[in-house]
Design brief:
- It is a single chain.
- This protein is α/β, with parallel strands linked by helices.
- The protein is 38% helix and 11% strand.
- It has 18 helices and 12 strands.
- The strands form 2 sheets. Strands 9-6-3-2-1-12-11-10 form an 8-stranded parallel β-sheet, with helices on one face. Strands 5-4-7-8 form a 4-stranded antiparallel β-sheet.
- The protein is globular and about 70 Å long.
- The model has no long low-confidence stretch (mean pLDDT 94).
Length: 500
Protein backbone atom coordinates (compact mmCIF):
# COMPACT_ATOMS: atom_id res chain seq x y z
CA UNK A 1 0.00 0.00 0.00
CA UNK A 2 1.31 3.45 -0.93
CA UNK A 3 1.57 5.83 2.02
CA UNK A 4 -1.00 8.62 2.01
CA UNK A 5 0.44 11.89 0.76
CA UNK A 6 -0.46 15.41 -0.24
CA UNK A 7 0.89 17.59 -3.02
CA UNK A 8 0.70 20.88 -4.89
CA UNK A 9 0.40 21.63 -8.62
CA UNK A 10 2.61 24.59 -9.52
CA UNK A 11 4.40 24.96 -12.83
CA UNK A 12 7.79 26.70 -12.46
CA UNK A 13 6.71 29.49 -14.84
CA UNK A 14 4.09 30.41 -12.20
CA UNK A 15 6.63 31.09 -9.47
CA UNK A 16 7.01 34.72 -8.41
CA UNK A 17 10.21 36.59 -9.16
CA UNK A 18 11.73 39.57 -10.94
CA UNK A 19 12.26 38.38 -14.52
CA UNK A 20 8.81 38.31 -16.13
CA UNK A 21 8.49 34.54 -15.74
CA UNK A 22 9.09 32.02 -12.96
CA UNK A 23 12.29 29.98 -13.12
CA UNK A 24 14.41 27.36 -11.35
CA UNK A 25 16.23 29.77 -9.08
CA UNK A 26 15.76 31.05 -5.52
CA UNK A 27 11.96 31.28 -5.73
CA UNK A 28 11.81 27.55 -6.49
CA UNK A 29 13.73 26.92 -3.26
CA UNK A 30 11.38 29.20 -1.32
CA UNK A 31 8.39 27.34 -2.71
CA UNK A 32 9.92 24.01 -1.66
CA UNK A 33 10.47 25.38 1.84
CA UNK A 34 6.83 26.46 1.98
CA UNK A 35 5.58 23.12 0.62
CA UNK A 36 7.63 21.19 3.18
CA UNK A 37 6.30 23.41 5.95
CA UNK A 38 2.78 22.72 4.61
CA UNK A 39 3.24 18.95 4.99
CA UNK A 40 3.41 18.38 1.25
CA UNK A 41 5.47 15.54 -0.20
CA UNK A 42 4.60 15.83 -3.92
CA UNK A 43 5.29 18.73 -6.29
CA UNK A 44 3.44 18.32 -9.57
CA UNK A 45 4.71 20.28 -12.57
CA UNK A 46 3.44 20.58 -16.13
CA UNK A 47 5.59 19.41 -19.09
CA UNK A 48 9.07 20.94 -18.99
CA UNK A 49 9.82 21.07 -22.72
CA UNK A 50 10.41 24.13 -24.92
CA UNK A 51 7.17 25.74 -26.02
CA UNK A 52 6.12 27.28 -29.31
CA UNK A 53 3.13 29.28 -30.48
CA UNK A 54 0.62 29.86 -27.68
CA UNK A 55 3.19 29.02 -24.95
CA UNK A 56 1.40 25.78 -24.09
CA UNK A 57 3.60 23.22 -22.34
CA UNK A 58 1.39 20.58 -23.96
CA UNK A 59 2.36 21.64 -27.49
CA UNK A 60 6.13 21.52 -27.15
CA UNK A 61 8.88 21.76 -29.75
CA UNK A 62 10.53 18.62 -28.36
CA UNK A 63 9.51 15.66 -26.21
CA UNK A 64 13.08 15.49 -24.85
CA UNK A 65 14.59 18.98 -24.58
CA UNK A 66 14.12 21.34 -21.63
CA UNK A 67 12.54 24.79 -21.72
CA UNK A 68 15.16 27.59 -21.88
CA UNK A 69 12.67 30.02 -20.31
CA UNK A 70 12.99 28.13 -17.02
CA UNK A 71 16.73 28.77 -16.72
CA UNK A 72 17.38 31.03 -13.71
CA UNK A 73 19.55 34.10 -14.41
CA UNK A 74 20.48 34.43 -10.71
CA UNK A 75 22.15 31.01 -10.77
CA UNK A 76 24.09 31.86 -13.91
CA UNK A 77 25.45 34.97 -12.17
CA UNK A 78 26.30 32.97 -9.05
CA UNK A 79 28.23 30.42 -11.14
CA UNK A 80 30.16 33.09 -13.00
CA UNK A 81 28.39 32.23 -16.25
CA UNK A 82 26.77 35.65 -16.63
CA UNK A 83 27.84 39.18 -15.60
CA UNK A 84 25.54 40.66 -12.97
CA UNK A 85 25.08 43.75 -15.13
CA UNK A 86 23.30 41.56 -17.69
CA UNK A 87 20.29 41.43 -15.38
CA UNK A 88 19.59 45.13 -15.88
CA UNK A 89 16.49 45.83 -17.93
CA UNK A 90 14.77 42.54 -17.10
CA UNK A 91 11.07 42.45 -17.97
CA UNK A 92 8.52 42.77 -15.20
CA UNK A 93 5.44 40.60 -14.89
CA UNK A 94 2.52 42.13 -16.74
CA UNK A 95 -0.36 42.59 -14.32
CA UNK A 96 1.07 39.85 -12.12
CA UNK A 97 1.09 37.41 -15.05
CA UNK A 98 3.86 35.87 -17.14
CA UNK A 99 5.12 38.37 -19.73
CA UNK A 100 5.86 35.71 -22.34
CA UNK A 101 6.94 37.87 -25.28
CA UNK A 102 9.23 40.08 -23.21
CA UNK A 103 10.65 37.11 -21.30
CA UNK A 104 11.37 35.18 -24.51
CA UNK A 105 13.27 38.14 -25.97
CA UNK A 106 15.20 38.97 -22.80
CA UNK A 107 16.02 35.39 -21.82
CA UNK A 108 17.27 34.73 -25.34
CA UNK A 109 19.67 37.68 -25.07
CA UNK A 110 21.07 36.78 -21.65
CA UNK A 111 21.53 33.13 -22.61
CA UNK A 112 23.57 34.23 -25.59
CA UNK A 113 25.58 36.53 -23.35
CA UNK A 114 26.19 33.59 -21.01
CA UNK A 115 27.33 31.49 -23.96
CA UNK A 116 29.77 34.23 -24.98
CA UNK A 117 31.12 34.42 -21.42
CA UNK A 118 31.47 30.65 -21.31
CA UNK A 119 33.41 30.55 -24.58
CA UNK A 120 35.59 33.51 -23.66
CA UNK A 121 36.53 31.98 -20.31
CA UNK A 122 37.20 28.58 -21.78
CA UNK A 123 34.48 27.15 -19.57
CA UNK A 124 36.07 27.78 -16.21
CA UNK A 125 35.06 26.32 -12.85
CA UNK A 126 34.68 22.86 -14.34
CA UNK A 127 31.79 23.91 -16.58
CA UNK A 128 33.59 22.83 -19.78
CA UNK A 129 34.20 19.33 -18.48
CA UNK A 130 30.61 19.15 -17.25
CA UNK A 131 29.32 20.26 -20.67
CA UNK A 132 31.43 17.65 -22.43
CA UNK A 133 30.11 14.96 -20.09
CA UNK A 134 26.56 16.17 -20.66
CA UNK A 135 26.97 15.95 -24.43
CA UNK A 136 28.55 12.50 -24.30
CA UNK A 137 25.99 10.91 -21.96
CA UNK A 138 24.34 7.90 -23.66
CA UNK A 139 20.86 8.96 -22.61
CA UNK A 140 21.16 12.09 -24.75
CA UNK A 141 22.58 10.40 -27.83
CA UNK A 142 19.13 9.89 -29.31
CA UNK A 143 17.94 13.50 -29.23
CA UNK A 144 20.44 16.23 -28.27
CA UNK A 145 22.18 16.65 -31.64
CA UNK A 146 18.87 16.49 -33.52
CA UNK A 147 17.30 19.09 -31.22
CA UNK A 148 20.25 21.47 -31.48
CA UNK A 149 20.22 21.29 -35.28
CA UNK A 150 16.43 21.71 -35.37
CA UNK A 151 16.58 24.76 -33.07
CA UNK A 152 19.39 26.33 -35.07
CA UNK A 153 17.55 25.80 -38.35
CA UNK A 154 14.35 27.19 -36.89
CA UNK A 155 16.18 30.39 -35.97
CA UNK A 156 17.85 30.53 -39.39
CA UNK A 157 14.39 30.44 -41.00
CA UNK A 158 12.78 33.11 -38.82
CA UNK A 159 10.99 30.63 -36.52
CA UNK A 160 9.09 29.15 -39.48
CA UNK A 161 7.68 25.65 -38.98
CA UNK A 162 9.95 22.93 -40.36
CA UNK A 163 7.43 21.91 -43.04
CA UNK A 164 7.86 25.42 -44.52
CA UNK A 165 11.66 25.10 -44.79
CA UNK A 166 13.37 24.47 -48.14
CA UNK A 167 12.45 20.99 -49.45
CA UNK A 168 15.90 19.48 -48.92
CA UNK A 169 15.87 20.44 -45.23
CA UNK A 170 12.20 19.64 -44.77
CA UNK A 171 12.88 16.12 -46.05
CA UNK A 172 16.22 15.83 -44.22
CA UNK A 173 18.34 15.05 -47.26
CA UNK A 174 21.76 13.99 -45.89
CA UNK A 175 23.74 16.49 -47.96
CA UNK A 176 21.52 19.36 -46.81
CA UNK A 177 21.82 18.31 -43.16
CA UNK A 178 25.61 18.06 -43.48
CA UNK A 179 25.81 21.58 -44.95
CA UNK A 180 23.54 22.95 -42.24
CA UNK A 181 25.58 21.29 -39.49
CA UNK A 182 28.73 22.92 -40.85
CA UNK A 183 27.21 26.36 -41.50
CA UNK A 184 25.40 26.50 -38.18
CA UNK A 185 28.08 24.91 -36.00
CA UNK A 186 28.19 27.83 -33.54
CA UNK A 187 24.39 28.03 -33.25
CA UNK A 188 24.22 24.28 -32.68
CA UNK A 189 26.81 24.58 -29.93
CA UNK A 190 24.74 27.36 -28.34
CA UNK A 191 21.63 25.18 -28.18
CA UNK A 192 23.62 22.30 -26.67
CA UNK A 193 24.90 24.76 -24.06
CA UNK A 194 21.37 25.93 -23.25
CA UNK A 195 20.22 22.35 -22.72
CA UNK A 196 23.22 21.79 -20.49
CA UNK A 197 22.21 24.79 -18.36
CA UNK A 198 18.63 23.59 -18.10
CA UNK A 199 19.64 20.04 -17.10
CA UNK A 200 22.10 21.36 -14.53
CA UNK A 201 19.56 23.68 -12.93
CA UNK A 202 16.74 21.14 -12.99
CA UNK A 203 19.00 18.56 -11.35
CA UNK A 204 19.73 21.09 -8.62
CA UNK A 205 16.02 21.75 -8.01
CA UNK A 206 15.26 18.05 -7.93
CA UNK A 207 18.00 17.58 -5.35
CA UNK A 208 16.58 20.41 -3.23
CA UNK A 209 13.15 18.79 -3.41
CA UNK A 210 14.53 15.41 -2.36
CA UNK A 211 16.38 17.02 0.55
CA UNK A 212 13.02 18.24 1.84
CA UNK A 213 11.30 14.88 1.34
CA UNK A 214 9.36 16.08 -1.72
CA UNK A 215 8.92 13.93 -4.82
CA UNK A 216 8.43 15.54 -8.21
CA UNK A 217 5.48 14.40 -10.32
CA UNK A 218 6.22 15.20 -13.96
CA UNK A 219 3.83 15.29 -16.90
CA UNK A 220 4.18 13.66 -20.32
CA UNK A 221 1.73 14.81 -23.01
CA UNK A 222 0.56 11.88 -25.12
CA UNK A 223 1.14 13.82 -28.35
CA UNK A 224 3.85 16.08 -29.75
CA UNK A 225 3.41 19.15 -31.92
CA UNK A 226 3.59 18.92 -35.71
CA UNK A 227 6.24 21.64 -35.58
CA UNK A 228 8.57 19.68 -33.34
CA UNK A 229 11.98 18.14 -33.64
CA UNK A 230 10.37 14.75 -33.02
CA UNK A 231 8.16 14.83 -36.12
CA UNK A 232 10.87 16.43 -38.28
CA UNK A 233 13.43 13.77 -37.30
CA UNK A 234 11.18 10.75 -37.90
CA UNK A 235 8.00 11.63 -39.83
CA UNK A 236 7.44 7.95 -40.64
CA UNK A 237 6.14 7.46 -37.09
CA UNK A 238 3.26 9.88 -37.67
CA UNK A 239 0.15 9.93 -39.86
CA UNK A 240 1.44 12.28 -42.57
CA UNK A 241 0.84 12.44 -46.32
CA UNK A 242 3.50 12.51 -49.05
CA UNK A 243 3.98 16.24 -48.47
CA UNK A 244 4.55 15.59 -44.73
CA UNK A 245 1.23 17.20 -43.78
CA UNK A 246 -1.15 15.49 -41.31
CA UNK A 247 -3.77 13.12 -42.67
CA UNK A 248 -5.67 13.21 -39.39
CA UNK A 249 -5.11 15.10 -36.14
CA UNK A 250 -5.70 14.66 -32.43
CA UNK A 251 -8.43 16.00 -30.17
CA UNK A 252 -11.43 14.87 -28.17
CA UNK A 253 -15.17 14.81 -28.88
CA UNK A 254 -17.62 17.31 -27.36
CA UNK A 255 -17.03 17.31 -23.61
CA UNK A 256 -17.24 19.20 -20.31
CA UNK A 257 -15.08 22.00 -21.72
CA UNK A 258 -16.48 22.46 -25.26
CA UNK A 259 -19.70 21.66 -27.13
CA UNK A 260 -17.77 21.14 -30.37
CA UNK A 261 -14.99 19.10 -28.80
CA UNK A 262 -11.34 20.05 -28.59
CA UNK A 263 -9.32 20.23 -31.80
CA UNK A 264 -5.72 19.94 -30.66
CA UNK A 265 -4.21 19.54 -34.11
CA UNK A 266 -1.30 17.28 -33.12
CA UNK A 267 -0.34 14.65 -35.70
CA UNK A 268 -1.42 11.14 -34.74
CA UNK A 269 1.00 8.25 -34.34
CA UNK A 270 1.49 5.37 -36.74
CA UNK A 271 1.16 2.84 -33.96
CA UNK A 272 1.76 -0.04 -36.38
CA UNK A 273 5.22 1.31 -37.22
CA UNK A 274 6.01 2.07 -33.60
CA UNK A 275 5.08 -1.46 -32.62
CA UNK A 276 7.18 -2.90 -35.45
CA UNK A 277 10.38 -1.63 -33.77
CA UNK A 278 9.27 -2.53 -30.26
CA UNK A 279 7.99 0.96 -29.37
CA UNK A 280 11.59 2.17 -29.21
CA UNK A 281 10.62 5.86 -29.45
CA UNK A 282 8.27 5.57 -26.49
CA UNK A 283 10.82 3.66 -24.45
CA UNK A 284 13.39 6.43 -25.05
CA UNK A 285 10.81 9.06 -24.19
CA UNK A 286 9.58 7.53 -20.94
CA UNK A 287 13.17 6.79 -19.89
CA UNK A 288 14.10 10.45 -20.48
CA UNK A 289 11.02 11.74 -18.65
CA UNK A 290 11.63 9.35 -15.79
CA UNK A 291 15.19 10.62 -15.39
CA UNK A 292 13.78 14.08 -14.62
CA UNK A 293 11.16 13.16 -12.03
CA UNK A 294 10.15 10.63 -9.41
CA UNK A 295 6.62 10.04 -10.71
CA UNK A 296 5.17 10.66 -14.15
CA UNK A 297 1.63 11.57 -15.15
CA UNK A 298 0.69 10.26 -18.60
CA UNK A 299 -1.62 12.85 -20.12
CA UNK A 300 -4.69 11.65 -22.07
CA UNK A 301 -4.21 8.02 -21.05
CA UNK A 302 -7.47 7.13 -22.77
CA UNK A 303 -5.71 7.72 -26.12
CA UNK A 304 -3.74 4.52 -25.58
CA UNK A 305 -6.99 2.57 -25.40
CA UNK A 306 -8.62 4.38 -28.33
CA UNK A 307 -7.98 7.83 -29.74
CA UNK A 308 -10.18 10.43 -31.42
CA UNK A 309 -9.07 10.84 -35.05
CA UNK A 310 -10.22 14.08 -36.73
CA UNK A 311 -9.87 14.64 -40.49
CA UNK A 312 -7.09 17.16 -41.13
CA UNK A 313 -8.51 20.52 -42.13
CA UNK A 314 -11.68 20.29 -40.03
CA UNK A 315 -12.39 23.36 -37.93
CA UNK A 316 -13.93 21.47 -34.99
CA UNK A 317 -13.50 18.03 -33.45
CA UNK A 318 -17.08 16.93 -34.11
CA UNK A 319 -16.42 14.71 -37.16
CA UNK A 320 -13.79 12.61 -35.46
CA UNK A 321 -14.10 8.92 -34.70
CA UNK A 322 -12.55 6.46 -32.26
CA UNK A 323 -9.65 4.32 -33.45
CA UNK A 324 -8.07 1.53 -31.35
CA UNK A 325 -4.78 2.46 -29.70
CA UNK A 326 -1.80 0.24 -28.80
CA UNK A 327 -3.33 -0.77 -25.44
CA UNK A 328 -1.30 -3.22 -23.36
CA UNK A 329 1.19 -3.90 -26.13
CA UNK A 330 2.82 -0.52 -25.43
CA UNK A 331 2.79 -0.88 -21.65
CA UNK A 332 4.15 -4.42 -21.83
CA UNK A 333 7.04 -3.12 -23.96
CA UNK A 334 7.69 -0.24 -21.55
CA UNK A 335 7.67 -2.54 -18.53
CA UNK A 336 9.97 -5.06 -20.23
CA UNK A 337 12.48 -2.32 -21.03
CA UNK A 338 12.18 -0.08 -17.96
CA UNK A 339 10.78 -2.24 -15.16
CA UNK A 340 7.95 -1.11 -12.89
CA UNK A 341 6.67 2.26 -14.01
CA UNK A 342 5.93 5.00 -11.43
CA UNK A 343 3.16 6.36 -13.67
CA UNK A 344 -0.16 8.08 -13.05
CA UNK A 345 -2.83 7.65 -15.72
CA UNK A 346 -4.83 10.77 -16.62
CA UNK A 347 -7.99 8.80 -17.40
CA UNK A 348 -10.37 11.75 -17.74
CA UNK A 349 -12.61 12.84 -20.60
CA UNK A 350 -15.07 10.57 -22.38
CA UNK A 351 -14.42 7.21 -20.78
CA UNK A 352 -15.45 4.35 -23.04
CA UNK A 353 -15.38 0.78 -21.63
CA UNK A 354 -11.88 0.10 -23.00
CA UNK A 355 -10.36 2.81 -20.78
CA UNK A 356 -11.05 1.30 -17.32
CA UNK A 357 -10.14 -2.07 -18.79
CA UNK A 358 -6.72 -0.77 -19.84
CA UNK A 359 -6.26 1.00 -16.52
CA UNK A 360 -6.99 -2.25 -14.69
CA UNK A 361 -4.59 -4.21 -16.90
CA UNK A 362 -1.74 -1.72 -16.42
CA UNK A 363 -2.30 -1.55 -12.66
CA UNK A 364 -1.72 2.22 -12.74
CA UNK A 365 -3.54 4.66 -10.47
CA UNK A 366 -6.08 6.86 -12.26
CA UNK A 367 -7.31 10.35 -11.43
CA UNK A 368 -10.37 11.80 -9.71
CA UNK A 369 -11.37 15.48 -9.84
CA UNK A 370 -13.60 16.84 -7.10
CA UNK A 371 -15.10 19.54 -9.32
CA UNK A 372 -16.53 16.80 -11.54
CA UNK A 373 -18.09 15.06 -8.53
CA UNK A 374 -21.22 17.18 -8.64
CA UNK A 375 -22.18 16.48 -12.27
CA UNK A 376 -24.36 13.50 -11.36
CA UNK A 377 -25.58 11.82 -8.20
CA UNK A 378 -23.45 8.71 -8.77
CA UNK A 379 -20.27 10.39 -10.04
CA UNK A 380 -17.03 8.49 -9.48
CA UNK A 381 -15.45 11.89 -8.81
CA UNK A 382 -17.34 12.36 -5.52
CA UNK A 383 -14.80 11.83 -2.69
CA UNK A 384 -16.83 9.19 -0.85
CA UNK A 385 -16.48 6.98 -3.95
CA UNK A 386 -12.72 7.32 -4.44
CA UNK A 387 -10.75 4.08 -4.49
CA UNK A 388 -7.51 3.98 -2.56
CA UNK A 389 -5.53 3.49 -5.76
CA UNK A 390 -5.98 6.92 -7.33
CA UNK A 391 -4.65 10.47 -7.32
CA UNK A 392 -7.37 12.94 -6.34
CA UNK A 393 -7.51 16.64 -7.22
CA UNK A 394 -9.77 19.56 -6.38
CA UNK A 395 -9.09 20.57 -10.01
CA UNK A 396 -6.32 20.32 -12.58
CA UNK A 397 -4.57 22.94 -14.72
CA UNK A 398 -7.55 22.70 -17.12
CA UNK A 399 -10.14 23.52 -14.45
CA UNK A 400 -11.13 26.84 -12.96
CA UNK A 401 -9.84 27.44 -9.45
CA UNK A 402 -12.02 26.06 -6.67
CA UNK A 403 -13.20 29.56 -5.77
CA UNK A 404 -13.88 30.51 -9.40
CA UNK A 405 -15.66 27.23 -10.10
CA UNK A 406 -17.91 27.64 -7.07
CA UNK A 407 -18.74 31.25 -7.91
CA UNK A 408 -19.75 30.25 -11.44
CA UNK A 409 -22.37 27.74 -10.31
CA UNK A 410 -26.06 28.51 -9.80
CA UNK A 411 -27.48 29.11 -6.32
CA UNK A 412 -28.92 25.60 -5.98
CA UNK A 413 -25.67 24.01 -7.19
CA UNK A 414 -23.64 26.08 -4.73
CA UNK A 415 -25.91 24.98 -1.91
CA UNK A 416 -25.44 21.34 -2.92
CA UNK A 417 -21.66 21.78 -2.84
CA UNK A 418 -21.76 23.30 0.64
CA UNK A 419 -24.10 20.56 1.86
CA UNK A 420 -21.51 18.01 0.75
CA UNK A 421 -18.20 19.62 1.76
CA UNK A 422 -19.50 21.55 4.77
CA UNK A 423 -18.49 25.05 5.75
CA UNK A 424 -19.60 28.41 4.39
CA UNK A 425 -19.26 29.95 0.94
CA UNK A 426 -16.48 32.26 2.14
CA UNK A 427 -14.38 29.18 3.06
CA UNK A 428 -15.36 26.83 0.25
CA UNK A 429 -11.86 26.34 -1.21
CA UNK A 430 -10.59 25.03 2.14
CA UNK A 431 -13.70 22.89 2.62
CA UNK A 432 -13.02 21.28 -0.76
CA UNK A 433 -9.40 20.62 0.19
CA UNK A 434 -10.56 19.01 3.43
CA UNK A 435 -13.04 16.78 1.55
CA UNK A 436 -10.25 15.69 -0.76
CA UNK A 437 -7.77 15.05 2.06
CA UNK A 438 -10.11 12.86 4.11
CA UNK A 439 -10.99 10.68 1.10
CA UNK A 440 -9.48 7.21 0.64
CA UNK A 441 -7.27 8.35 -2.28
CA UNK A 442 -3.63 7.53 -1.67
CA UNK A 443 -2.52 10.89 -3.08
CA UNK A 444 -4.39 14.20 -2.82
CA UNK A 445 -3.06 17.08 -4.92
CA UNK A 446 -4.39 20.62 -5.22
CA UNK A 447 -3.45 23.51 -7.50
CA UNK A 448 -1.61 26.17 -5.50
CA UNK A 449 -4.43 28.60 -6.35
CA UNK A 450 -6.84 26.75 -4.04
CA UNK A 451 -5.10 27.13 -0.64
CA UNK A 452 -4.33 30.70 -1.72
CA UNK A 453 -8.10 31.19 -2.29
CA UNK A 454 -7.65 32.76 -5.72
CA UNK A 455 -10.52 33.23 -8.16
CA UNK A 456 -10.97 32.75 -11.90
CA UNK A 457 -8.38 35.44 -12.65
CA UNK A 458 -5.78 32.89 -11.54
CA UNK A 459 -6.96 30.07 -13.82
CA UNK A 460 -4.05 28.42 -15.63
CA UNK A 461 -5.81 27.16 -18.77
CA UNK A 462 -9.21 27.29 -20.42
CA UNK A 463 -9.09 24.46 -23.00
CA UNK A 464 -11.54 26.06 -25.44
CA UNK A 465 -9.64 29.38 -25.44
CA UNK A 466 -6.89 29.87 -28.03
CA UNK A 467 -5.00 32.69 -26.27
CA UNK A 468 -4.41 34.03 -22.77
CA UNK A 469 -3.56 30.73 -21.12
CA UNK A 470 -0.58 29.53 -19.04
CA UNK A 471 0.25 33.00 -17.68
CA UNK A 472 -0.73 32.63 -14.00
CA UNK A 473 1.90 33.63 -11.44
CA UNK A 474 1.78 33.34 -7.66
CA UNK A 475 1.40 36.84 -6.19
CA UNK A 476 4.53 37.96 -4.31
CA UNK A 477 4.28 37.12 -0.62
CA UNK A 478 1.22 34.89 -1.06
CA UNK A 479 2.92 31.71 0.20
CA UNK A 480 2.66 32.67 3.85
CA UNK A 481 3.57 30.67 6.96
CA UNK A 482 -0.07 30.92 8.06
CA UNK A 483 -1.30 29.28 4.84
CA UNK A 484 1.36 26.56 5.17
CA UNK A 485 0.38 25.87 8.78
CA UNK A 486 -3.30 25.53 7.86
CA UNK A 487 -2.51 23.13 5.03
CA UNK A 488 -0.16 21.11 7.22
CA UNK A 489 -2.82 20.76 9.89
CA UNK A 490 -5.25 19.28 7.36
CA UNK A 491 -2.53 16.97 6.05
CA UNK A 492 -1.75 15.77 9.58
CA UNK A 493 -5.40 15.23 10.51
CA UNK A 494 -6.00 13.17 7.37
CA UNK A 495 -2.87 11.04 7.70
CA UNK A 496 -1.09 12.67 4.75
CA UNK A 497 1.76 14.18 6.74
CA UNK A 498 3.58 13.23 9.92
CA UNK A 499 3.07 15.77 12.72
CA UNK A 500 5.80 18.42 12.73
Amino acid sequence: MTARSAGIILHPTSLPGPYGIGDLGPEADRFLDWAAAAGQSVWQVLPLGPTGYGNSPYVGLSAFAGNPLLIAPDLLVAEGLLPAASLDGAPAASGGRVAFDAAIDWKGRILRRSFEEFRASGGGSGARAALDAFRAAPERAGWLADWALFAALKERHGSAAWHDWPPDLKRREPSALARAAKDLAEEIEFHVYVQFLFARQWSRVRGEAARRGIRILGDAPIYVALDSADVWVDPSLFQLDDDLRPIAVAGVPPDYFSETGQLWGNPLYRWDRMEADGFAWWIRRVRAEGARCDLLRIDHFRGFASYWSIPAGDETAERGHWVPGPRMRLFDALRAALGDLPLVAEDLGEVTPDVPELLRDTGLPGMRVLQFGFDSWDSQHAPHRYPERCVAYTGTHDNDTALGWFAGRGAAAREAVLDYVGGAARDVAWAMIRALYVSAAERAIVPVQDPLELGSEARMNLPARAEGNWAFRVPPGALTPECAARLRRLAELSGRARPA
